[in-house]
Amino acid sequence: MTTEANHPVRTTEKSLHLIEKLRELDGARIHVLEDELEMTKGAIHNHLSTLRTHGYVIKEGNEYRLSLKVLTLGGYVRSNYSIYQFGRPKANKLAADTGMLVNLATEEHGQSVYLYQARGEYAVNLDTQVGHRLRLHNIAIGKAILAYLPDERVEAIVDEWGLPTETENTITDRETLFEELESVREQGFATDLEERTEGLCCIAAPIQPGDDILGAISISAPTSRLGDRAFDDDLVGQVKSTANEIALDIKYM
Amino acid sequence: MTTEANHPVRTTEKSLHLIEKLRELDGARIHVLEDELEMTKGAIHNHLSTLRTHGYVIKEGNEYRLSLKVLTLGGYVRSNYSIYQFGRPKANKLAADTGMLVNLATEEHGQSVYLYQARGEYAVNLDTQVGHRLRLHNIAIGKAILAYLPDERVEAIVDEWGLPTETENTITDRETLFEELESVREQGFATDLEERTEGLCCIAAPIQPGDDILGAISISAPTSRLGDRAFDDDLVGQVKSTANEIALDIKYM
DNA sequence: CATAACCGTTTTCAATTCGAAAACAGCGAT
DNA sequence: ATCGCTGTTTTCGAATTGAAAACGGTTATG
Fold it and tell me: Which bases of strand D sit closer than 7 A to a protein CB?
């Protein structure tokens, strides 16, 4: 899967590098960018002015930074995902019913991308936010997605992103991963037992209205809370049926 | 306030036009873009391939569309706003306490940009979403912001965006607007009584940790519900004190 | 089933445009 | 008042873009 343009537009690439760098540095002055990128200050100035004219960049004093235009754009893109449109109200309900943190995510470029979060009364505060991208192998949402992708796709994703260790519970070899995915398919849901974050567990179910997997929904909670309540409240059942409802809404929309 | 680059990078502008168009059309094929933009298909192909290499565009069959990379970027930009960082937990609490829809917004380019929404138990479903941009003159959040901007800034914003009618309650002349803003300053909060949307009312308070106004927080509810509960629950007081808490958190962070 | 129409991709090369370098201007510090 | 630092502007040679045409793959049509 090579995505090299065979006739790349170099000028556009320079602008994109500039955008990346502004993000990385949370804004910067021109002479700083001059050191970071291989461009002269005259060129940087031209690019930044152009991006500014079009509303992508804001200048405060001599500091340039990305504007909220990207947030606006991102909102538009997100609103086209049926899993977001139909999943949002269901995620709200699941959060209200369980009191937990509910996540809605899809797959892009072999990563999970968080589309929405709903917070119940006792929702944990996590490092994950809308737009964040995580690897798929060590989170419940990720494994719920991987389980319903073709094997060769999973192989390619593991090739690209690896199986890096995050906690002592992280799955780090392919064989174990494929066994796990098989058991996800048998059970219809995936779990994350402190595989990415110490003390945090998740339960996820796939959202699959047709042949293709569109994403997954999960609940996250501290290990103690999930352990206590998982069976009493049939949390697994709630997550699975929410995922099913979303899938049905999408299928017959 | 002219933001014309005096040496614009035309190639970058072409890519940006392409991005805008993809957003507008929610994705498109090359020959459609050829009709919409003044570019040949060869050029469009080069630009799209370049944007794709860098992850901004996705190709599905022969259809090109914007990827979630912009959502990711937008998330990073948003997380740099202190009003978001500190306002998010407070907005969650206000939503839980009042059961309503809570909005957090800032100003950019003379518009309001929604940074966050928190949903209480009885929150209305609205057309506003994170990232959306609205005019300032006919929403509570907007007037709460305008009231604490310098007069000449307000004038400039009205010059740029006008005071278009949305409902019969919309303020449409400058004099009334400035009177309203004066009363917002006296009272320390702003209201929207069906000025943008029939049947919807809002209460907003400014977030101003220092000399500059950073944004505002509001609650939205159907006219009937707000009317019933506004006085009983001292909703105005709750919104104002939440705004104050956020401002203090930011000031002494 | 053959053929045509259509459309995305590639190639070539002339015209455009970009940006390196240098000069300028504005601000802050000394 | 002067110097130094940086952002902006200008100029013009060099790099790159993209118009046009050819190609090739896919879908529609007779």
Answer: 5-11, 15-21
CB contact under 8 A, A12 and B11: yes
Give me the domain span that covers residue A39: 10-67
In chain A, residues with a C-beta closer than 8 Å to the C-beta of B5 are 46, 49-50, 52-53
The whole-angstrom distance between residue A185's C-alpha and the CA centroid of its chain comes to 21
Euclidean distance between CA atoms A204 and A231, whole angstroms = 15
Q: What is the pLDDT along chain B (253 residues), one digit of tens a residue?
A: 456 778 999 999 999 999 999 999 999 999 999 999 999 999 999 999 999 999 999 999 999 999 999 999 999 999 999 999 999 999 999 999 999 999 999 999 999 999 999 999 889 999 899 999 999 999 999 999 999 999 999 999 999 999 999 999 999 999 999 999 999 999 999 999 999 999 999 999 999 999 999 999 999 999 988 877 766 679 999 999 999 999 999 999 7
CB atoms within 10 A of CB A36: 15
* CATH classification at residue A53: 1.10.10.10
Q: How far is CA A187 from the centre of its chain?
A: 23
Compare CB distances from B74 to A16, A49, A73 and report the shortest one's residue: A73
Q: How many Å from the CA of A62 to C1' of D1?
A: 26
Distance (Å) from the C-alpha of residue B204 to the closest C-alpha of chain A?
21
Q: What letter does residue A213 receive in the DSSP assignment? A: -
CATH code, domain with A98: 3.30.450.40
Which two three-digit tokens encode residue A81? 């995902």
Q: Please give the tally of structural domains in chain A.
A: 2
The reply to whether residue B3 touches residue A67, judged by beta carbons under 8 angstroms, is: no
A37 and A138 co-located in one domain = no
Report the predicted TM-score, pTM, of the whole model to 2 decimal places: 0.94
Q: Which of residues 58-77 of A touch strand D (CB under 7 A)?
A: 59, 62
Q: In chain C, which nucleotides are within 7 Å of a protein Cβ?
A: 6-12, 16-22
* CA distance readout (Å), B174 to A21, B30, B68, B136: 42, 46, 40, 13
Across the interface, of A46, A56, A77, the residue whose CB is closest to B7 is: A46
- Domain end (from B33, B67, B101): B67
Q: Are residues B30 and B150 in the same domain?
A: no
CA distance A230 to chain B (A): 23
Minimum-distance nucleotide, CA of A39 to C1': C19
One DSSP character per residue, B4-41 reads --SS--HHHHHHHHHHHHHHHHTSEEHHHHHHHSSS-H
